[in-house]
Specification:
The structure holds two protein chains of two kinds.
Chain A lengths: L2 H26 L2 H22 L5 H22 L3 H12 L10 H9 L6 H12 L4 H7 L4 H17 L12 H20 L3 E2 L5 H17 L4 H15 L1 H4 L19 H15 L6 H24 L8 H8 L2 H14 L3 H15 L1 H9 L7 H13 L3 H14 L1 E2 H13 L3
Parallel strand pairs in A: 1-2
Helix pairs in contact in A: 1-2, 1-3, 1-5, 2-3, 3-4, 5-6, 6-8, 6-9, 7-8, 9-10, 9-11, 10-11, 11-13, 11-14, 13-14, 14-15, 14-16, 16-17, 17-18, 18-19, 19-20, 20-21
Chain B lengths: L1 E10 L6 H20 L3 E6 L7 E6 L2 E6 L7 E11 L2 H15 L3 E5 L7
Antiparallel strand pairs in B: 1-5, 1-6, 2-5, 3-4
The chains are: A mainly alpha, B alpha+beta.
């Protein structure tokens, strides 16, 4: 088969994987049976689609084919007195296959994958595997663990779902806020792992960002009335709109103030800003919406600059600096104040201090930073170093840069800090 | 339906003050009534202190009996429930109430199905 066709089939299966597995989990009451069935349908599609052409509804074809293949397989196994297969067949008899019911099946599946009885690593792996349709090898690569380790993690998690009977159900209204927090945390963790990879060569592992946004879009379409779901999607869109500008062609890190704002992705930014405005209008703020609002203020500054440019205004020599200066830092500080009431974490206070440095000067910010107990966190030292540098306290800045360099494994971040340190001379 | 064991993890040391124990006992009684009313109750009972435990094991085919408990630690099983529940969320629902009543951590663990012999 020509590789384009093969890639097309793979793309369709990946896009429909979550829905197909979700429907089949309900039909058979078993994740392994569902996964195997979808894999069988993939094999069938590779054989049939190139000759027959794409079916009118690929999702429907996949689900029907997978279901039929699974029933054939289970009948063979049940005949050999496999109790597991008998149970799955019995389950299937009572369940109808329907495509696109009122409440999407994927919603049940994601709440199962992100059940608080599973540890975060297992939640992430299951979500990427079952909803995202990533292979075990791809997930292992993304999280820099050996493939057998990731396979083991998935087997163990699925075993717990089966043995402890973690239900396949959208939680009751009373439990929804807590359970939704866990779902959003999983998606945001995937995004952050992609956006600021904690280790490795590339600063950004774009695949994971794209996957998190894809999951975020799924969630937003499944739960359009949850403002935090929209807030998270907006946050991810706005953050990734700056992705191209965050590194140079050589992979070097560019700090926000020095980014070329013409390289920010306008389409992502506009989509994110529209979402932020829509969810803030509901006046049910939450941590993701506020963080998205902070990102939106940065985006506003860049939009302002575009307007100036279109008006033919004289551009300053360092246009990017002018744009950072156009940022409404006062408003960002206020948003961080609000965020701290929901999430009083030292890391939030650290980020707030960065905004204070722009609004009130590095001296005020340094006092705030020094009061935080974050000595083992590289960004704490990196930010301290930057503030000390701006205050002309070069000797202390050099020490702080050194400490930050020691504490990060991300090559791009480390190179950036080294360059900064060298620029101080000495 | 699945059977779950809800285990209380209790810190070693002397018993808490009597008025505290009284309120815990009241809450536990009410909880057990709830579990029974829901038809989920199979068994529940508190254990004597870990110092009352005795360990029996086989060493070189000989039975060796020693003073317990088996696991050295700062906390031990203080008692447990066996409940029947349709799924983990239902079992966790009882566990939440048990944790509130005892003020102690509760471990929820599913029983295996009855094997076929």
């Amino acid at each position: 088969m020509d590789p384009e066709r093969a890639a097309e089939i793979e793309r369709i299966f990946r896009a429909e994987h979550g829905r197909a597995v979700a429907v089949l989990v309900r039909v058979f009451g078993d994740i392994d049976v569902a996964e195997e069935a979808v894999a069988d349908a993939f094999t069938a599609a590779v054989q049939r689609w190139p000759a027959d052409g794409l079916p009118p509804s690929p999702a429907g074809w996949i689900i029907t084919t997978a279901r039929n293949r699974a029933i054939d397989r289970l009948r063979r196994e049940a005949y050999r007195a496999d109790r597991h297969a008998q149970a799955a067949l019995l389950h299937a008899r009572d369940e109808e296959v329907e495509e696109g019911p009122v409440r999407d099946e994927r919603l049940r599946l994601i709440f199962t994958c992100c059940h608080p009885a599973l540890n975060r690593g297992a939640q992430v792996a299951l979500t990427l595997r079952l909803l995202g349709g990533l292979t075990t090898a791809e997930i292992a690569r993304a999280f820099l663990v050996p493939e057998p380790t990731m396979a083991q993690r998935l087997v163990r998690a699925k075993g717990k779902i089966r043995d402890a009977k973690i239900p396949y159900r959208v939680p009751a209204a009373a439990d929804l806020p807590e359970r939704l927090r866990s779902v959003l945390a999983v998606v945001y963790l995937v995004f952050n792992e992609g956006y600021a990879a904690s280790s490795g060569e590339a600063l950004v592992r774009a695949d994971l960002c794209a996957e998190a946004i894809r999951l975020g879009r799924q969630l937003a379409s499944l739960m359009p009335d949850e403002p935090e779901v929209l807030g998270l999607l907006a946050l991810m869109l706005l953050a990734s709109s700056r992705r191209a500008a965050r590194t140079t062609a050589g992979g070097e890190l560019v700090p926000l103030a020095e980014q070329d704002r013409d390289r920010w992705d306008r389409a992502l930014m506009a989509e994110g800003q529209t979402l932020v405005r829509a969810c803030l209008r509901r006046n049910e703020p939450g941590v993701y919406q506020i963080q998205a609002a902070i990102q939106a203020v940065h985006a506003d500054a860049s939009a302002q600059r575009t307007v100036d440019k279109e008006r033919g205004g004289a551009l300053p020599r360092r246009a990017e600096a002018a744009s950072a200066a156009a940022t409404d830092w006062r408003q960002i500080v206020q948003l961080y104040d609000q965020l701290l009431t929901y999430d009083p974490a030292p890391i939030v206070a650290l980020n707030r201090a960065v905004a204070v440095a722009e609004a009130d000067g590095p001296g005020t910010a340094l006092a705030l930073v020094d009061a935080l107990d974050l000595g083992t966190y590289y960004l704490f030292h990196a930010i301290r170093a930057d503030l000390l540098r701006r205050l002309g306290r070069d000797v202390e800045a050099r020490t702080a840069y050194l400490r930050a360099i020691e504490l990060t494994d991300n090559t791009a971040e480390r190179d950036f800090l080294r360059r900064r340190r060298q620029s101080l001379g000495g | 339906m699945t059977l779950y064991m809800l285990t209380i993890y209790q810190p070693d040391g002397g018993p808490p003050p009597p008025e505290f124990m009284e309120s815990v006992a009241r809450d536990l009684y009410a909880l057990n009534q709830d579990i029974k009313a829901a038809g989920a109750w199979v068994f529940s009972r508190g254990l004597h202190a870990p110092g009352t435990a005795t360990v029996v094991r086989v060493r070189d085919r000989e039975i060796v009996t020693t003073d317990g408990p088996y696991v050295e630690g700062k906390e031990h099983i203080g008692g447990f429930w066996i409940v029947e529940a349709p799924d983990l969320d239902a079992a966790l629902g009882w566990a939440r109430k048990a944790a509130r009543a005892t003020t102690l951590p509760i471990e929820v663990r599913p029983f295996q199905d009855v094997p076929e012999y």
